[in-house]
Amino acid sequence: MARRIGHAAPETTPILRIGGFTRLTTIDYPGELAAIVFCQGCPWRCRYCYNTDLLDARTDGLIPWSDIRGFLKQRIGLLDGVVFSGGEPTAQGALETAMQETRAFGFKVGLHTSGVYPDRLRALLPLIDWVGLDIKALPDDYPAITGVSDSGQRAWESLSILLTARVPMEVRTTLMPDWTPEQIATLAHALADAGVKNYCVQACDSRRALDETLAPSAMPMSERIGLVERERFGRFVVRGK
């Protein structure tokens, strides 16, 4: 992640705290050329998180939003969209203003979120064109991953909000290394029952995980997802081995 773009004038409030920035990606907003803004801070501590430098909300942003804004002005007609990722972008009240300014430049707005704040997500819907939503587990199994007691209810409420609003999205799950094929299939089929059509499962990179005790799964990904009824999804993607 790039750390700074250039010199900038002082920010007005509210300030979006930005921990990193990628000028161009072809994979983080499907079908679009996009830039990624990595927002600082997340209230959850997921065991497999690999963006650990973005977790602390008290850390000052390394890149002023005005720098990003200046960059985007120069990319009008060259980029299709901007993805707000993190960390957890919806943790910041300044996200709405940043999204509004992004749309004013003519860019599509993408959001990567874990669904931490359903009410904030609902308020942002008019500004969002696409969402990458992390669904980490069935609701009751969330605390073992996030360390937060009501995190599963929040995430699944966010899923319901997005499905009801028919926002284009990809739901993705990082598979805990000790999950059995039966557990993985149960989660996948629950998402299919909920109405998810675009689903991605991805391997956990235990080498970069917040929880250093996580070990790689001894089972190949092809075997781990062998019980998933892929035909229940319009699009089923596997990332990692």
Automatic annotation (TrEMBL):
- Record's keyword terms, sorted: 4Fe-4S, Iron, Iron-sulfur, Lyase, Metal-binding, Pyruvate, S-adenosyl-L-methionine
* Entry annotated with the keyword DNA repair: no
Any Pfam family the entry gives: Radical_SAM
UniProt keyword S-adenosyl-L-methionine present: yes
UniProt xrefs under PROSITE patterns: RADICAL_SAM (PS51918)
Question: What is its cofactor?
Answer: [4Fe-4S] cluster
Q: Name one GO molecular function term.
A: 4 iron, 4 sulfur cluster binding
Query: Domain named Radical SAM core: which ranges?
Result: 28-241
NCBIfam families, alphabetically?
NrdG2 (TIGR02495)
Would you tell me the protein name for this molecule? Pyruvate formate lyase activating enzyme
User: From which lineage does this chain's organism come?
Assistant: Bacteria, Pseudomonadati, Pseudomonadota, Gammaproteobacteria, Chromatiales
